[in-house]
TrEMBL record:
Gene3D superfamilies per UniProt: NAD(P)-binding Rossmann-like Domain
Bias-annotated ranges (Basic and acidic residues): 203-213
Keyword Oxidoreductase: yes
PANTHER family referenced in this protein's UniProt entry, alphabetically: OXIDOREDUCTASE, SHORT-CHAIN DEHYDROGENASE/REDUCTASE FAMILY (AFU_ORTHOLOGUE AFUA_5G02870), SHORT-CHAIN DEHYDROGENASE_REDUCTASE FAMILY PROTEIN
Native source species: Marinibaculum pumilum
Signal peptide feature range: none
Recorded superkingdom: Bacteria
Keyword Oxidoreductase (UniProt): yes
InterPro entries per UniProt: NAD(P)-bd_dom_sf, SDR_fam
Keywords for this protein: Oxidoreductase
Pfam families for this protein: adh_short
Chain intervals for the UniProt region annotation (Disordered): 197-216
Assigned protein family: Belongs to the short-chain dehydrogenases/reductases (SDR) family.
Name of the protein: SDR family NAD(P)-dependent oxidoreductase
């Protein structure tokens, strides 16, 4: 579903992987903050339609954009459709789309490594390159990369995923230096915010609050952090752990094994 060309003066934001879960929460928060939001998905038409409808029902402006971010032509076509519909290019990019599969050193394969890197790292790098090719119209563009709390308290589970996120962490710092002063670049490292699809019943409720604050993060906490980063023009090159302090109490295994 595409938006008609708009006359609003609100800045444009693009959130990848925003049909559901954290991406949807962040898209809705940006819309509530006055942005016209492009809600990206790869193949979840019903979920993305629901997210767009929620934004529009709350008085915001949103459009759904579909693209396989491993396909450069599809990425370029997506950005062209956003410019056509909104009359402007994105000035806020949230690199949220992610592959998250378990492996470890004993089971890792080259295919798994490449699958995670293509989506979690390469797509974010190439999309950032395109979005930042020109200075933002407002002079204050923002790139936010979704990382993971486990980068601050490592464990060997989800090896391919973790390595791809380490690369994205490095990219965050490099681009904060390279893209200033026109673009700010930060990261958000959420803790155990939503139950994994394969989690057994009750596991999330039992483990999410196992943090120093005795309170795990919610999608709204992550969205609030995004809103802060976007609005505070003195912040760049920072990674914000939104995890109830879990990084200060590291564990030897991932949450799913606790």
């Amino acid at each position: 579903m595409q938006a008609e060309r708009q006359d609003e003066t609100g800045r444009v934001a693009l959130v990848t992987g925003a049909a559901r879960r954290l991406g949807a929460a962040m898209a809705m928060r940006l819309a509530a903050d006055g942005f016209r939001v492009a809600v990206h998905h790869r193949g979840s038409p019903e979920a993305v339609a629901e997210t767009v409808a929620k934004i529009q029902g709350a008085g915001g402006t949103a459009m759904a954009v579909r693209a396989d971010l491993e396909d450069i032509a599809a990425m370029d076509a997506m950005l062209a459709s956003i410019r056509h519909a909104f009359g402007a290019a994105p000035e806020v990019l949230v690199n949220n789309a992610s592959v998250f599969e378990w492996d470890d050193l004993a089971s890792v394969t080259s295919e798994a490594l490449l699958r995670h890197y293509r989506t979690n790292t390469v797509a974010a790098v190439l999309l950032t390159r395109r979005v930042t090719a020109a200075p933002p119209a407002s002079g204050a563009g923002v790139i936010v990369n979704l990382l993971d709390q486990k980068l601050l308290a490592p464990n060997p589970d989800h090896l391919s995923y973790t390595l791809s996120k380490y690369a994205l962490l490095g990219f965050t710092e490099l681009m904060a230096r390279a893209l200033a002063p026109h673009w700010r670049v930060c990261g958000i490292a959420p803790g155990y915010t939503l139950p994994a699809p394969e989690a057994p019943p009750g596991h999330f409720e039992r483990t999410r609050d196992d943090t120093p604050l005795r309170r795990g993060p919610t999608p709204e906490d992550v969205a609030d952090t995004l809103s802060y980063i976007v609005s505070n023009r003195a912040v760049t090159g920072q990674v914000f752990a939104v995890d109830g302090g879990a990084f200060m109490a590291p564990a030897s295994r991932d949450y799913s094994f606790r």
